[in-house]
Amino acid sequence: MAEAAAARRSRITPERESELYGAVLGLLREVGYDALTMDAVASRTRSSKATLYRQWGGKAELVVHALRHEKPLDLADVDTGSLRGDFHEVARRQDDCQMEEHSALMRGLTMAVHDNADLRKAFRELLIEPELEELRRVLRRAVERGEVSADNPAFDYVVHMLVGAFATRTLVDELPPTQEFLHSYIDAVVLPALGA
């Protein structure tokens, strides 16, 4: 699915693709997933609906590609030489304002992901699986450096810990996630759980 989508998108310039993704996320923030339509995206981006469907296949795939394009946690190019450094570098990738916007967007999408099989599938294939593979690479490097043990049972829960902190900060503390909060959470929870 991802390879076919990439082949379809190859006809759009990176600048135009970025513009389209920005419009999709803007609409998503304004009206939510359920009310977002391909007609609205086409109108806002001065595109034809047929072009959008040809390039992305549907709303779910387009939304998830937009999220992936703007994703806050990019582990692919992070290698500071230590697991703590890697996690802290990822937390520094967004300022507090960007984190608050992303957190609100993800909260708004939570119900839609649970209620919509197409969106859930696109999330899994285009966002979650690639993120998990990047995280596994970071953890493998930490094992190779001797920072953590490969048989630590917390390995299976690192993504849950990281996403949980980000997602529940507003619910539990009535505060947005911030760099300071994530840095302290990484040091107090994630790294000790991994024995680092």
Characterize the structure shown.
The chain is mostly helical. It is 75% helix and 0% strand. It contains ten helices and no strands. The protein has helices at 2-9, 14-35, 38-45, 49-56, 59-69, 83-92, 96-115, 117-144, 158-173, 179-194. Helix 2 packs across helix 5, helix 6 (83-92) runs antiparallel to helix 10 (179-194) and helix 9 (158-173) packs across helix 10 (179-194). The longest helix has 28 residues, at 117-144. It starts with a helix and ends with a helix.
Topology at a glance:
Layout: H1 2-9, H2 14-35, H3 38-45, H4 49-56, H5 59-69, H6 83-92, H7 96-115, H8 117-144, H9 158-173, H10 179-194
Helix pairs in contact: 2-3, 2-5, 2-7, 5-8, 6-10, 7-8, 9-10
Please describe the structure with a list of short key phrases separated by commas or semicolons:
196 residues; mainly alpha; 10 helices; single chain
Question: What's the quick description here?
Answer:
Helices cover 75% and strands 0% of the residues. The protein is an all-alpha fold. The longest helix is centred in the middle third of the chain and has 28 residues, at 117-144.
